[in-house]
Amino acid sequence: MLKTLLALVIVAACRMAGAEVLVKDDTGATVSLPQPAQRIITLAPHLVETLFAAGAGEKLVGTVQFSNYPEEAKKITRVGSYERVDLETVVALKPDLIIGWLSGNSAANIEKLRGLGFPVYISQIDRIEDVASEIERFGILAGTSAAGNAAAGRFRERFAALQERYSKRPPVRTFYQIWKQPLMTVGGKQIISSVIRLCGGENVFEKLEMLAPTVTVEAVIAANPEAIVASGMGESRPEWLDDWKRWTSITAVARDNLFFVQPELIQRHTPRLLDGAERLCQQLETARSRRPRG
């Protein structure tokens, strides 16, 4: 009897593993797979990280440059960069699913991949809370829903705790600087604006439609942010953040509210975004503590 029951469980599991998978991506298109993906290629570093979070890291066979987290990601075969994909390498890896990035990958590259017959899922999450649902969808695509759902649950709990603690705090007008030349920031639809809102901040360029618009020094001075937050390219605080010190009329400069958050923690749409959010929230809380009393 026990052997029969065990056999039925194994058969049911096999059927579930081979079941058709239907998942809607962030463009609204439905991605259909005959069974959960076993050989996945991602076209952006943050997608690698999210797949690992969903328990599907072992199914990754290809990715792009700068995919460096977690440590295992460094060993995955490269198929070019997020801007330019090596189609020959992609074909040789025989993926059964490719995950692309709407705002980062070339539309022409995506269409070429589809033209070669590969199923392509397009990711584009613009709100921090949507990271959790992406983890869940990746888990469905890869057949690792148990791990994906658990990771998504942990993300939601931590997000809710940060929201409860910081989102209703007195607002801090914030300028987020991506780069110096050209001087780039984030618009209201960029996910970093979502992080700023979570922390009770207000992006001074919230009304700009572009995800990463170029602005002028004069526009920043006119906006008069209470905090300036920079990212840069590496783990170290960029030297150009201190260039703002010459503009003493800016409140952020007058109160020494010039902050840095590692770009990997705040510019990648992954579970680690909450690490970046926690740092930013603490920094905006510092800015609040430096307000004149009375």
How would you describe this structure to a colleague?
This is Cobalamin-binding protein. Residues 1-19 form the signal peptide. Keywords: Signal. Residues 39-288 form the Fe/B12 periplasmic-binding domain. There is one protein chain. The protein is α/β, with parallel strands linked by helices. The chain has two domains: 16-152, 3-Layer(aba) Sandwich (Rossmann fold), CATH 3.40.50; 168-289, Nitrogenase molybdenum iron protein domain (Rossmann fold, 3-Layer(aba) Sandwich), CATH 3.40.50. The chain contains eleven helices and ten strands. It has helices at residues 2-17, 45-53, 87-93, 107-115, 130-142, 145-166, 191-198, 217-223, 251-254, 263-266, 273-289; strands at 21-24, 30-33, 40-42, 60-62, 97-101, 120-123, 172-177, 201-203, 227-230, 258-260. A four-stranded parallel beta sheet has the order 4-3-5-6, sandwiched between helices. Strands 8-7-9-10 form a four-stranded parallel beta sheet. A two-stranded antiparallel sheet has the order 1-2. Helix 5 packs antiparallel against helix 6 (145-166) and helix 6 (145-166) runs parallel beside helix 11 (273-289). The termini are far apart.
